[in-house]
Amino acid sequence: MYHFGRVRILPRFARSYSTAKSVPQNVTEKIVQKFAKDLPADKYVRSGDYVTIKPKHCMSHDNSWPVALKFMGIGAKKIFDNRQVVMTLDHDVQNKSEKNLRKYESIRKFAEQQGTDFYPAGRGIGHQIMVEEGYAVPNSMAVASDSHSNTYGGIGCLGTPIVRTDAAAIWATGQTWWQIPPVARVELVGKLPEGLSGKDVIVSLCGAFNHDEVLNHAVEFSGEGVSTLGVDSRLTIANMTTEWGALSGLFPVDIKVLEWYERRLRAVGPNHPRITKGLLESIEKNILRPDAGAAYAKNLVLDLSSLRPCVAGPNSVKIFNPAHELEKKNIKVNKAYLVSCTNARASDIHEAAKVVRGKKIAPGVEFYVGAASTIVQEEAKKNGDWQALLDAGAIPLPNGCGPCIGLGAGLLKDGEVGISATNRNFKGRMGSRESLAYLASPAVVAASAVAGKIASLPGLEEVKGEVVKSISDASSSAGSSNAVPSKTEILDGFPEVVSGEIVFCDADNLNTDGIYPGKYTYREDLTKEDMAKVCMENYDQKFGQITKPGDILVSGFNFGCGSSREQAATAILSRGIPLVVGGSFSDIFKRNSINNALLALQLPELVSKLRDAFKSNNDPTVRTGWKLEWNVRDSTITVTNTENKVWTWTVGQLGESVQSLFIRGGLEGWVKHQISA
Q1: Main-chain dihedrals φ then ψ at residue 584, nearest 5 degrees
Q2: Each residue of 157-171: pLDDT tens digit?
Q3: Which of 660, 536, 521 is CA-nearest to residue 594?
Q4: Are the C-beta atoms of 278 and 4 separated by less than 8 Å?
Q5: What is the DSSP string of 177-199?
Q6: Using CA atoms, how far apart are residues 197 and 636, in angstroms rounded to an integer?
Q7: Structural domains in the chain, sorted by start
Q8: For the chain, N or C: smaller number of CB within 10 Å?
Q9: 621-631 tens-digit pLDDT
Q10: What is the pTM of this model?
């Protein structure tokens, strides 16, 4: 039993809240069971189910005003549940232009009018606020219109991203749709070597399992290695399951989580509206565990004791490098960063301060530091860590996002090299497309800033050998049928046939920064024509010259990974492209597509045919001359090449519920119709 005010050992088998006796469920399914609406009494949700969810909380940040415009545009006037909605300002906090300040003031006034909780610029990063202010709590479900909502899984809260249109729908109705993904179990065994942190774990996972093993999965962490990780490390790992391709990353609730909440309760005092003694008692009494026999799509195992300081990059999270190997290459560093929702918490700042204390940042290196919140910064100041960084020559930034998304001071210039404790190092995200960006732990980033080159940590070079990992497929798929499906009923207003010439962009992991650059994300003045011009700019600057309205865009696997920006879908629509075909899609892009009436089809066989035919063409965008026709009624795709060779594939049926969204122009139009009805 856990008692407040003193530490006791949590029993191995604490009382478990189970919603299913006859139907085994994993923890993800159990949480969804609690937050799904209008389920039949005997319905136990499973992976693959489409459900209507009413999350405990929904956060939006600088995109709150675009969400508000959507909200008002669909005819809504009052937020359905103002206790459900949280607004934070955190992304463009360094921008003091009149235009940005006017937008921030509009968000503040709107939040005040609606009676929602609001946190101004400088208070901190929204995901950190969600955790430290008790909006995201264990055994619950919280969403945010940002791709790093996975962070909440670090404290046992099912966090998953939504897009702006979903957020507007939740504001208006309290709910939205979600398809429960397949669930992968990741077992952590062993113990991390001294000096390593959660960042080393997730970078190792991204590098060791870099073939889409968890793409569009929910991840549940387990194993004795979990107990060796502090809450800050868990938050870091959960945060970057997004970069790994997952939709959520959920840690179990254990003694360390309960101790974290007890410390937080002492810090906030007895009058906090959410973090209370009652909350801690409720968490302890209702700890969720997977049922015996619960289904998992995959089982992955990582031995923490085999890890060593590591670096991801350049310009890809999935390129894994032992730090001591890069140190030998003398890669000069121009800029270093300790910022973002990933690694700017108190323990991160402490690890960096230990490295730089009594030293100086190398000449020619700019080391930018920004705490995840004012609470974090105050803690770092009290223990002397913040001053140690400043004394070493670090440059402080406001509590917010900034250079992680390519905003504000310290962006990378042409030819520069940066090493960062952030979550993404996509080409062009943190500045120039002609720069190189690496990711590492706060300690390695600080060591590199002092050394003036990518550096490892002293005394850890002896941890040698390969990362120890294993994977097994635990799925029990019923297989696919070759039978011809029944005819699909076509709703009035939906096309029976979609066709066009294939334009091939042969790239896997083509991310949202490549499709719609981050520097345009918060520019609300761009017209549809402007968006069409910059579509795919970071991927291929000639894309706009090559494509034309009516083309069918075909790309590789994990298309649309990265951030939750819905402009990745709407920019493609702005070019007059009605359909995107991929080997597979990031779920967040698929969600944006459905919500904004862009058709998307998964057809890996077509990608293989195109790669075979155009393997000698090195152009990033290729007009193929091939014709594609999708017969929606028959659920068939027919492709004809320039030699009149024909291939036909059967695809899933496009049901009436999805058709109805497209007829209304997307989820926004559907919600507006529901309100008017």
Answers
A1: -160, 165
A2: 999 999 888 899 999
A3: 660
A4: no
A5: EEEPPPEEEEEEES-PPTT--HH
A6: 49
A7: 27-304 (3.30.499.10), 310-451 (3.30.499.10), 497-676 (3.20.19.10)
A8: C
A9: 999 999 999 99
A10: 0.79
